């Protein structure tokens, strides 16, 4: 429940003040309460575009390495013109459990799951 909602009567008009902010997420705008909860949840869950793109890259790169199109991560990174560190972190997504991948693709990852996946990606001690 939003605790800082204000109501007042001005003549015959009831004025309700609800603090909120707008947040862009995956190209969508969301209305967010001060505590971080979404005030008007979307009717259809949308997958996180950035995470989906990273999953697609991971699977593509994994396939390229397995088919011997590239012999090493270094060759792959040089061809893609990105850092070797980034390639190795994104490739970790190819190892996620199918249930986790399904939740991400269906737009239903929990905030904790998204945080854990991103933390896992960014950690240097895989």
Q: What level of helicity do the residues show?
A: 40-55%
User: Helical stretch count?
Assistant: 5
The main pleated sheet reads as: 2 strands, antiparallel
Structural class by helix and strand composition:
alpha+beta
Looking across the biggest beta sheet, what order are the strands in? 1-2
Strand content: 15-25%
**Bulk shape:** elongated
**Spans of at least 5 consecutive residues with low confidence:** none
Key phrases:
two-stranded antiparallel sheet, two-stranded antiparallel ribbon, alpha+beta, 16% strand, 2 domains, 4 strands, 126 residues, 43% helix
Give the helix/strand layout.
Layout lengths: L5 E5 L2 E5 L3 E5 L2 E5 L16 H18 L6 H8 L3 H8 L6 H8 L5 H12 L4
Antiparallel strand pairs: 1-2, 3-4
Care to give the gist of this entry?
The protein has 126 residues and is α+β, with helices and mostly antiparallel strands. The protein is built from 5 helices and 4 strands.
Describe this structure in words.
α2 crosses α3. It is built from five helices and four strands, in the order ββββααααα. The longest helix is centred in the middle third of the chain and has 18 residues, at 49-66. β1 (6-10) and β2 form a beta hairpin. 43% of the residues lie in helices and 16% in strands. It has helices spanning 49-66, 73-80, 84-91, 98-105, 111-122, and strands spanning 6-10, 13-17, 21-25, 28-32. It is α+β, with helices and mostly antiparallel strands and 126 residues long. It has two domains: 1-43, no CATH class; 49-122, no CATH class. The model has no long low-confidence stretch (mean pLDDT 82). A two-stranded antiparallel sheet has the order 1-2. It has a two-stranded antiparallel sheet with strand order 3-4.
């Amino acid at each position: 429940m939003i605790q800082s909602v204000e109501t007042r009567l001005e003549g015959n008009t009831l004025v309700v003040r609800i603090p909120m902010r707008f947040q862009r997420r995956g190209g969508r705008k969301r209305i967010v309460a001060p505590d971080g909860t979404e005030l008007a949840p979307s009717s259809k869950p949308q997958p996180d575009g950035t995470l989906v793109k990273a999953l697609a890259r991971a699977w593509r790169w994994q396939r390229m390495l397995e088919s011997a199109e590239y012999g090493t991560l270094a060759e792959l990174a040089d061809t893609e013109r990105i850092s070797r560190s980034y390639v190795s972190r994104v490739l970790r997504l190819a190892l996620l459990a199918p249930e986790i991948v399904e939740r991400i693709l269906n737009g239903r990852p929990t905030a904790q799951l998204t945080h854990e996946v991103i933390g896992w990606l960014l950690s240097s001690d895989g």
